[in-house]
Fold this protein.
Amino acid sequence: MMKIGLTGGIASGKSTVSKWLIDHGYPVIDADEISRQVVEPGEPALEQIAAQFGNQMIRPTGELDRRKLGTLVFQNSEKRALLDSLLHPLIRRQMLEALDHLERGGARVVFLDIPLLFENGLDTWADKTIVVSVTEDNQLKRLMARNSLTADQARARIASQMPLSEKVNRADAVIDNNGSIEDTEAQLNALLQQWALDLT
């Protein structure tokens, strides 16, 4: 089974590419989706977050206040490292279980949608890597609009990740997402054909 790592900078459009792959029949293991699952009410990770960061991180409904937690950890690298140490082992275990399930099911390719693919060394899981890239200006504008952030808040979140330029340098392939959705899809189609992964 061929494993392809899919990543990009925050607000680069990686999720758009991931959705296109799913819509066209490709199996995708989404690290963000798994990270949401492990902090659902009743999960041990949610209790650990409350113990480490305070009960104010939990909404009255019992759900994680992701915005409040995000604001805290993106302003404090030590707290972010602590959160990562709580969640990453759980996320990795579920991803490995999903990989095993797909391989036993006979899948010939799987995409690993992981925002911190290179930062966390998970590119070693992949046979090839794709980075979805945008200009710094587009990334900033999209993040501010998507998350209702100020420019300073958006820059802090972008700065917390590996520079997109470095990810581009390390990738096997790059999808330029500065243009239209149709342009992005055309690049992706061409790459899948080049790698002999076209399912049609």
Observations:
- The longest helix spans residues 77-104.
- The chain has a mean pLDDT of 94.
- The longest strand covers residues 2-8.
- The beta strands are 2-8, 28-30, 109-113, 128-133, 173-176.
